[in-house]
Design goal:
291 residues, alpha/beta, nine-stranded mixed sheet, 18% strand, binds alpha-D-ribofuranose, binds calcium ion
Length: 291
């Protein structure tokens, strides 16, 4: 009997770090997943939506709805002129008119028995959806790239919008957190980048182009943060999770955006990744990306 596919919505800041594109490539090449929509978040949303739609065109999946989302965090700093730089500008690519990302997330949760959110950017859209319609919380399974435990160094997706992260973490939704302490262990080598580029199909050509642009602009090889997070939806044997109580620091002179692992009872209950089988993950990721 065919297993029922879980409905997946991917919330992404694609176009900055190239790992979002690699995560999307992994999801699009994985028949186990049913992607019901992609929402963009954090700065230059229209530009990110065009990058997303271009990718869907190349993968032959223009049927997947793409929504623009929150430009700025709930509170605090953002650079409205900053254009992310691991992708060309593909110009305006038309899509069907859709509500803003937070409303689309609510609609998807209402329409389906359960909704899995692959959150691979700052948590503003997801936080807004939860704040607007808390009745969707019991339906949500959130698998997120973000934070890190036992290290006093804030991670990008949390530090960009700690208030939204706090709403999400404290919502009581089912959350799996794949943090920087684990994702940092998973990196492509030059040979692996070249292997993908050498395959020579339109999908690998696009990923190759985006990876080269990322390497030129950022000065290092791709780190596989976001694909590792989404791999938790595909393979149960790669990541080990532990139950944790996590506090999100929203104040602090030096500590804003930290995810603090507190075992004294306070904090949101989440399952946090604590280890990964790096070589097996990269092997399976490569197999999927070259399809
Ligand atoms: O800290 C890593 C995260 O920040 C990843 O999601 C990456 O894509 C960037 O957004
Ligand atoms: Ca990301």
């Amino acid at each position: 009997m065919e297993q029922k596919k879980s409905k997946l919505l991917i919330d992404t800041d694609i176009g900055g770090d190239v790992d979002d594109a690699l995560a999307l490539g992994l999801a699009l090449n994985s028949p186990e997943l049913e992607i019901v929509g992609i929402t963009n978040v954090y700065l230059a949303n229209q530009w990110r939506a065009n990058v997303t739609r271009n990718m869907l065109r190349v993968y032959g999946r223009e049927d997947i709805p793409v929504c623009t989302g929150a430009e700025k965090p709930l509170i605090g700093w953002w650079d409205e002129n900053r254009i992310p730089n691991s992708s060309r500008d593909f110009g305006e690519i038309a899509g069907s008119p859709l509500p803003p990302a937070c409303d689309f997330i609510v609609q998807m949760a209402e329409q389906h028995e359960e909704l899995t959110i692959g959150a691979i950017g700052p948590l503003t859209n997801v936080g807004l959806a939860i704040a607007k319609a808390p009745y969707i919380i019991p339906k949500l399974h959130i698998v997120m790239m973000g934070g890190q435990i036992n290290r006093a160094h804030p991670e990008w997706n949390i530090v960009c919008d700690p208030e939204a992260a706090r709403i999400v973490f404290e919502s009581g939704a089912d959350i799996r957190m794949i943090g920087l302490d684990v994702t940092n262990q998973c990196r492509f080598t030059r040979e692996e980048v070249d292997y993908i580029k050498g395959i020579g199909n339109p999908r690998t050509d696009l990923l190759g182009e985006m990876m080269e642009m990322f390497i030129a602009n950022f000065g290092y090889l791709p780190i596989l943060h976001d694909p590792l997070a989404l791999s938790a939806l595909l393979w149960k044997d790669l990541l080990t999770f532990a139950e944790k109580k996590i506090l999100i620091e929203t104040g602090g002179q030096y500590t804003r955006g930290l995810t603090i692992d507190c075992d004294w009872g306070e904090g949101a209950s989440v399952r946090a990744a604590v280890s990964v089988n790096v070589e097996e993950f990269k092997k399976r990721l490569l197999e999927r990306l070259v399809l």
